[in-house]
């Protein structure tokens, strides 16, 4: 009797050790995926150092110049509407550096941000390679195109944040004063932080349909739930728009909220597709 208990205990211990080894094997695999993604980000960061003059003068400082693409398009829109209120011919922004190593850290931080943005699609690809072996064949087919769609939405959000939200915010904040006795002098780190935050935050927010797809696949979200919660979603979207845009004017807030409403409706469609696929698989079984 004791021999049977001993054999059973040895078997259970062996199964436990096998599970632990499997867990650590997964951790090891994930570590290498993350290392490769980090190497890609480092390579893009080094490339950003090489092209830094163009990146800083054209991309980072672009929204602070009156000849920026967004301001030129607003001027054309004003001409079509026969209104001078849309045209922006001057940006009241004066940048300073208050730290000894400020400009050095500026170059490092800005290059790292560019490296993260450019390396984000490859990071998604490595995550997909890590998750893919654990999926069934039907799940792999359903998730085909994950990297493409996630990258597309991220780039779309980055472009929207950079060309719409960032210039509108910079134009408003640079000219906002509470008293004529106070002169606006902006630290260069504050400027870079504002541009990076507005751009990256919008890119992340535009991943909403991907998040909906994942939650729907896990059975947490359904299209019925999303439709019934549309009124609450409107409030949440308006709050997110107010947080993303530090400007109090309703026009900018409306411009930001419209794409978020569209993304929410796209999320409902995505949840519906996932639900129909689940029902079809259940019917087949």
- From the alpha-carbon coordinates, what is the Rg to the nearest angstrom? 25 Å
- The shape is globular
Number of domains: 1
Which percent bin holds the helix content? over 70%
Q: How is the largest sheet built, in terms of strand order?
A: 1-2
Secondary structure: number of strands: 2
- On the 0 to 100 scale, the average pLDDT is 82
The structure class reads mainly alpha
Major sheet: size, sense and barrel closure? 2 strands, parallel
Percent of sequence in beta strands: under 5%
Order of helices and strands: HHHEHHHEHHHHH
Total of DSSP H or I helical runs spanning 4+ residues: 11
Span between N and C termini? Answer: 44 Å
Low-confidence stretches: 16-21
Structure description:
- The chain is an all-alpha fold and 285 residues long.
- The chain has one domain.
- It is built from 11 helices and 2 strands.
- It has a two-stranded parallel sheet.
- The longest helix is centred in the first third of the chain and has 49 residues.
- The radius of gyration is 25 Å and the shape is globular.
- The relative contact order is 0.09.
- About 2% of the residues have low confidence.
- This is Sec-independent protein translocase protein TatC.
């Amino acid at each position: 009797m004791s021999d049977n208990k001993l054999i059973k205990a040895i078997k259970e211990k062996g199964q436990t050790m096998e599970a632990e080894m499997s867990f650590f094997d997964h951790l090891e695999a994930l570590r290498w995926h993350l290392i490769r993604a980090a190497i890609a980000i480092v390579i893009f960061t080094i490339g950003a150092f090489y092209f830094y003059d163009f990146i800083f003068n054209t991309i980072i400082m672009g929204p602070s110049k009156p000849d920026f693409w967004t301001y030129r398009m607003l001027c054309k829109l004003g001409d079509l509407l026969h209104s001078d209120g849309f045209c922006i011919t001057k940006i009241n922004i004066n940048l300073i550096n208050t730290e000894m190593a400020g400009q050095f850290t500026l170059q490092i931080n800005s290059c790292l941000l560019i490296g993260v943005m450019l390396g984000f699609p490859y990071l998604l690809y490595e995550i997909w390679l890590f998750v893919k072996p654990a999926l069934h064949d039907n799940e792999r087919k359903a998730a085909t195109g994950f990297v493409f769609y996630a990258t597309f939405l991220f780039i779309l959000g980055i472009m929207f944040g950079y060309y719409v939200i960032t210039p509108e915010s910079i134009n408003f904040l640079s000219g906002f004063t509470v008293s004529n006795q106070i002169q606006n002098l902006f630290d260069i780190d504050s400027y870079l932080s504002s541009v990076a935050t507005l751009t990256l935050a919008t890119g992340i927010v535009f991943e909403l349909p991907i998040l909906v797809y994942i939650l729907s696949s896990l059975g947490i979200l359904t299209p019925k739930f999303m439709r019934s919660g549309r009124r609450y979603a409107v409030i949440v979207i308006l709050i997110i728009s107010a947080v993303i845009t530090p400007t109090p004017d309703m026009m900018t807030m409306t411009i930001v909220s419209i794409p978020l409403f569209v993304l929410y409706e796209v999320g409902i469609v995505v949840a519906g597709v996932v639900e129909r696929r689940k029902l079809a698989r259940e019917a087949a079984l």
